[in-house]
Amino acid sequence: KFGRCSKGRLYTLAEPLVGSSFLSEPDGMVWKQQRRLCQPAFGTHMLERATMVSASLLYEDLFPIIDNNLDKLEISGCMNRLTLDILGHVAFSYPFGGLKALSSAANSGEEGECLYDAFDTIITTIILRARDTPLRPLLPSKENFNFWKASRKLNAVVNNVVQTRLDEQLRSEREGSQKKDKSSSSLRRQKDLLSQLLLRDKDGSRLSKTYIAGNVRMLCFAGHETTSSTLSYALWHLASNRDIQQRLREEIDPLFPQKTTESEGYSGPKYAQLRQLRLLDAVVKETLRLHAPAGVARRTLEEIKIGGNAGGKEYTLPKGIDVMFFPCMVQRLPSQWEYPEKFCPDRFLRLPRATFSPAGGRLSVTLAVSNSSSTGSLDSTSDSDDTPLQDEGKTIPRRPVPFVEHSYMPFSVGPRSCIGQELALAELRAILAHIVHRYSFEPADTLSEPVEALTLTIQPNEVLLRFQER
Predict the structure, then answer these.
(1) CA angle, corner 104, sides to 117 and 451, nearest 5?
(2) How far is CA 296 from CA 286, 287, 299, 416, in A?
(3) Burial class of residue 431 (count of CB atoms within 10 Å of its CB; 0-12, 13-18, 19+)
(4) pLDDT number for residue 187
(5) Burial class (CB in 10 A: 0-12, 13-18, 19+), 339
(6) What is the pLDDT of residue 248?
């Protein structure tokens, strides 16, 4: 219902992280301008950079932690730190240091303070405020004192980086392209998201410093929790389905060299190669189907009627109410999916004639067989292929599934769908590929299946895994 709803109360509570960004803006010219200026920042060059940064932080920071905790490791907390560290580098070339602080704590017994802690404090406080009286933020409590301190720290870092980079951009524009800084650090920064936000629009306008800083904060917040949740659930399902894990490993291993040294630099799979792996893509899609982490919160600006199609019941949403919607609930409907609660990536390889976009939605019915469409989707074989699905050694009969619009939409749909969906998918593919290549893993405790917990997104309470280096 584009244009008939505004952002809900959740966005007001999350203002310290999403304020002055297009995510918090109502539909209108300001939102359109910000979205238009931010969109080019998610081009192929950024996806390639995210793939490289993900691999680098895995080998530098995460794999040493796993190697020291092979018997039992709670992986969801590590994924949370890893994805925020990645976005810190990709968004504005700044190290959040979450994994390094965790490693330092394991070695010395004391966790050093880093920007990750400020982010974590802000998110935790917002969650508590969402569940309590509106007076809670006004109390002179230790919780609020820590929140204000963390907010000042985060804003100071982001604002200082933005101001420095904006000064560099203005100086470069004054001096002309012939005198651009050619240093390696400058060239590296020119490829991050912030460098794109500093550019002028086609009409010569540029986002204000406030909006640039707001979008940097928002992209780090909105991108790391959702991706870390998906990674945690994907690893859990692969650990619980060793046959799928092995099939995925057999697909991934040929992209890795037999042996590499640090002097040779990065020689793992590139973004374009990972994008072509059909089972890896299916594993990501199936995880997002079961555990799409983000909800959609809106406040109605007028009375809206929904439903009533095909003789169904019609509902009326009064004006001025908050509505919360979770795509993962629709994506488990038995009317739309065979064995909806089963983790079965093969459904995305064998589903007859359905074309899925990365954002979601069955976009079309097609006979084409393509592994590299413009949307990055997987077209299955033709509808004459009736090979049954396989799940835990059991044959799953296929049956026709009705093509209902938006039955799959983990990144939402429409004009306000997730702008960073391709970046998230690039991270997911890269991280899963490197972990599956380096380790075999299984649940550390078969009785400890993750429980879904609603914070600002849907997160697993804990994911305990046992690793074995290959």
Answers:
(1) 55
(2) 20, 19, 10, 10
(3) buried
(4) 44
(5) middle
(6) 97
User: What count of Cα atoms within 13 Å lies in the side-chain half-sphere of residue 117?
Assistant: 10
Q: Alpha-carbon distance 295 to 297, whole Å?
A: 6
CB 341, CB 332: distance < 8 Å: yes
d(CA 292, CA 328): 5
- Lowest average pLDDT, out of 186-200, 208-222, 311-325, goes to 186-200
Phi, psi (degrees; rounded to nearest 5) at 408: -140, 115
CB 74 within 8 A of CB 108: no
More confident residue, 427 or 299: 427
| Helical H segments across 176-208, by residue range | 184-189, 193-197
Instruction: Tell whether the model's pLDDT for residue 110 goes beyond 80.
Output: no
The phi and psi torsions of 383 (rounded to 5 degrees) equal -70, -5
Q: Are 235 and 74 in contact (CB under 8 A)?
A: no
CA–centroid distance for 296 within its chain: 15
Token pair, residue 207, equals 């986002």
Q: Are 396 and 390 in contact (CB under 8 A)?
A: yes
pTM recorded for the entire structure: 0.84
Residues with Cβ within 8 Å of 446's Cβ and at least 6 positions away in sequence, in order, are none
Candidates 214, 236, 407; CA nearest to 328 is: 407
Q: What is the pLDDT of residue 263?
A: 43
SS3 250: helix
Strand partners, 396: 389
- Asked if 327 contacts 296 with a C-beta cutoff of 8 angstroms, the reply is yes
All residues at 6 or more sequence positions from 52 whose CB lies less than 8 Å from its CB, including other chains: 266
Judged by DSSP in three states, 307 sits in strand
Q: Return the axis-axis angle of helices 209-240 and 142-175, rounded to nearest 10°.
A: 110
102 within 8 A of 73, measured Cβ to Cβ:
no
Give the DSSP H/E element, type plus range, for residue 384: none
Q: Which among 12, 13, 295, 294 is positioned nearest to 126, based on CA atoms?
A: 13
